Recover the amino acids of this structure.
């Protein structure tokens, strides 16, 4: 049994089941657990649903937890064999609304970081009436602006450009050793250079990314977001109405990718938000699951419209 | 016989000999050919002396040509097994003056591009009296400024950051396939996306970079130049006196890495220079050897102090 199969078996033993749900012609893999108010958990890159296991185990008595693999990731389908520039945040947002409709859920809370945070923002613009509340970790958002590409930060964001190249996935997946070297960097470095966070899961992550199409499936996000990212950095993104969905943000103080100081412009993009910091890197949900789960519960408990019987 | 050994044998049959010359404790590999006025040829990244073969064959009747492998590159020694942040342009400049002293040559002309162009600039600041003239291809220089890291250009310069990471060389060298994918990109893309330029030499380049330490040896330049590059991009580089060495620049009109428009500030950094453009990418010397050799001959012939009997 591979490390990934072992991790899946352990999750299943803990009551987390995986289902396949067709949405708009694509088969989504969805991990589900618990009962209560529906809560959608959106992973980032280089993650897949498994990153949510610690959160799911802690919140199963309070929420019906739904953790899909996004388009191109994990065991969800890869619609294209070649690099796909159409996997935009809005495309992912449409996928997620379609998924929740397929599950019979109209209104729900949503939690995510990294790529997942982009998707939540796109969902918030597309259909805010369907979101009861949103909870973000260390959040990429247009207010990062030129800082996200400033000279001193290029050592952190080079991968957003490399991963657009048509041969990049082939290089990273050219052997299990190459794959491990590459993803270990992002798992360890973004955990505040703490290799202990993902040590037990490293081989399971390598198993995941060595599945056909999974490296390119993740890289597709960087290809698909390139034009928008450039507008961000150039300060030329067309103005958008601020997000009115009630929002809580929990930011890792040691996130090397999106430093906490760069949360200073959240008020330009969210009208109803609060922010807290925590001693963690980029993967708050994996690094500090007790704190993260407690914050998620407290935030959603505080939303009056989010009743236990709302489904 | 490997592709690289075949290329060396063919060069030797054409009268190009390789010698080992110790300089400051490091053994330099130097390709030599021709007789006449001494001319030092400085390769860039990802190159080694072999890139000069077409130029050497065309100029052997006019010049004594000296094409070393720079520190860490080709068959020159690698002083450190680990990533080495001390291989700065000034360190390479000291190496080159030491090499020419070891060969008994006090004054000489110098030709180079890419990394070689950085080294010529450092040599010009360190000991201009030893340089009769300098000839550059598509030239990185401080006048590129913030443009070299602007949002629309990050898809070109990501490698300057990736290559600083301590695991990058291990990834690129994890297999011959990985190595080929990586270097083929830079050889083909910088030739104006023309895979024909290096097609016959691709396997020889892969042979070269698969030699122990050669990938890291090249990456050391990016680690060693990181602090200075950041100052460039931030416009904070301390002012330097302009270079007074007589200079000619030949710039590829289709260079994707250093677009010809960005030659507009050469006058701030050189007091005695002329510039011409040519239909080529980044590797003018490899792509247009007839034009490049002719321009080199014409330029150095025009320098009055550069007599055929000067050695």
């Amino acid at each position: 049994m591979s490390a990934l199969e072992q991790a899946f078996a352990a999750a299943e033993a803990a009551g987390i089941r995986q289902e396949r749900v067709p949405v708009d012609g694509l088969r989504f893999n969805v991990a589900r657990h618990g009962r209560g108010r529906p809560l959608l958990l959106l992973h980032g890159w280089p993650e897949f649903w498994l990153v949510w296991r610690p959160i799911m185990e802690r919140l199963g008595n309070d929420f019906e937890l739904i953790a899909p693999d996004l388009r191109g990731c994990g065991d969800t389908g890869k619609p294209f064999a070649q690099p796909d520039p159409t996997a935009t945040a809005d495309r992912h947002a449409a996928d997620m609304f379609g998924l929740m409709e397929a599950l019979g859920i109209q209104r729900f809370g949503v939690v995510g970081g990294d790529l997942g945070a982009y998707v939540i923002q796109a969902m918030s613009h597309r259909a805010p009436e369907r979101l009861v509340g949103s909870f973000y970790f260390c959040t990429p958002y247009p207010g990062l602006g030129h800082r996200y590409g400033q000279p001193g930060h290029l050592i952190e964001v080079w991968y957003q450009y490399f991963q657009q190249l048509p041969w990049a996935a082939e290089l990273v997946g050219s052997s299990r050793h190459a794959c491990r070297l590459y993803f270990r960097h992002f798992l360890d470095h973004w955990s505040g250079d703490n290799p202990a966070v993902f040590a037990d899961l490293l081989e399971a992550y390598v198993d995941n990314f060595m599945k056909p199409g999974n490296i390119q499936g993740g890289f597709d996000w960087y290809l698909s977001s390139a034009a928008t990212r450039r507008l961000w950095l150039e300060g030329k993104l067309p103005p958008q109405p601020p997000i009115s969905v009630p929002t809580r943000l929990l930011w890792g103080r040691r996130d090397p990718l999106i430093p906490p100081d760069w949360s200073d412009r959240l008020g330009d993009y969210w009208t109803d938000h609060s922010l807290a910091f925590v001693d963690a890197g980029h993967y708050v949900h994996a690094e500090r699951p007790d704190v993260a789960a407690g914050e998620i519960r407290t935030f959603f408990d505080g939303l009056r419209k989010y009743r236990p019987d709302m489904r």
User: Anything to note?
Assistant: DSSP finds 13 helices and eight strands in chain A. The radius of gyration of chain A is 18 Å. The longest strand of chain A covers residues 26-33.
